[in-house]
Specification:
The chain is mostly helical and 193 residues long. It contains 10 helices and no strands. About 3% of the residues have low confidence.
C-alpha cells in the first residue's frame, strides 16, 4: 500500500513539474508575435535585397524564414519568384509546383507559374495559370489582378488570339488605369485589327 502511495505521489510531482515548465499563455502569445515580426521583417529585408539586385542574399533570408515556417506558401512563392527574376525558370517552376501541392488555389503561385510558362514560350500553359489565378485573387487585390490580365494578354497574343488579348488588356485597365505598357499594347493591336 505504501509503495502504491509513493508511486502515485511521484506521478503527481512529475505532472506538477511538467505543468510548471509549460509556458504560460501570454508567453506563447508573445512568441507568436515575435515569429510574425520576424517573418514581416524578413520579407521586407528580402524585398530590399531583390530591389538592390542582391538575389543570393534575398534567397538566404527566405531560406531562413522557411526554416521557421516550412509550409508558409507566401514565403515559398516569393522565394520561388527570385528564381524567376534571375531567369532560372526550371528552379522557379519546381518551387512553385511545391507551393501548389500545399495550396492548389494560391493565386500568387499560379500567377508566377504563368509568368514562368510565358517566359519559356509555353503560352497555353501560361494562359491556363493566369486564368486560374484570376479565379482566386480577392476583388481588393486590384494591382495583382491588373498584372495578371496584362500578362494574360501577352500570352494570348503569343498564340495569336488577338481579340482575346485586347479584351484582357482592356480589363487590366479597369483595375489599373495607369498601366502605360498596356495602353501602348492596345494602340498597336487596334491598328492591326
Amino acid at each position: 500500500m505504501e509503495r502504491a502511495r509513493r508511486k502515485l505521489l511521484r506521478r503527481i510531482i512529475s505532472v506538477r513539474i511538467i505543468l510548471w515548465n509549460m509556458p504560460a499563455p501570454e508567453i506563447i502569445e508573445n512568441l507568436s508575435e515575435e515569429i510574425e515580426n520576424t517573418r514581416t521583417m524578413g520579407m521586407w529585408l528580402a524585398s530590399k535585397y531583390v530591389l538592390d539586385h542582391r538575389y543570393k542574399a534575398a534567397r538566404d533570408v527566405f531560406e531562413k524564414l522557411l526554416q521557421l515556417s516550412p509550409n508558409d506558401v507566401e514565403i515559398m512563392t516569393l522565394h520561388a519568384n527570385i528564381y524567376c527574376v534571375e531567369g532560372k525558370f526550371i528552379e522557379a517552376e519546381n518551387r512553385l509546383n511545391q507551393v501548389l501541392i500545399l495550396n492548389p488555389n494560391y493565386p500568387l503561385a499560379l500567377y508566377f507559374l504563368g509568368y514562368v510558362y510565358n517566359a519559356k514560350g509555353e503560352y497555353e500553359k501560361a494562359i491556363n495559370m493566369y486564368e486560374t489565378a484570376l479565379k482566386y485573387f480577392s476583388e481588393n487585390e486590384k494591382m495583382e489582378i491588373a498584372n495578371t490580365y496584362q500578362n494574360l494578354g501577352c500570352s494570348l497574343l503569343g498564340v495569336n488570339r488577338r481579340t482575346e488579348a485586347l479584351e484582357a488588356w482592356k480589363t487590366c485597365l479597369k483595375y489599373n488605369p495607369k498601366q502605360k505598357n498596356v495602353k501602348g499594347n492596345i494602340k498597336k493591336l487596334t491598328k492591326i485589327l
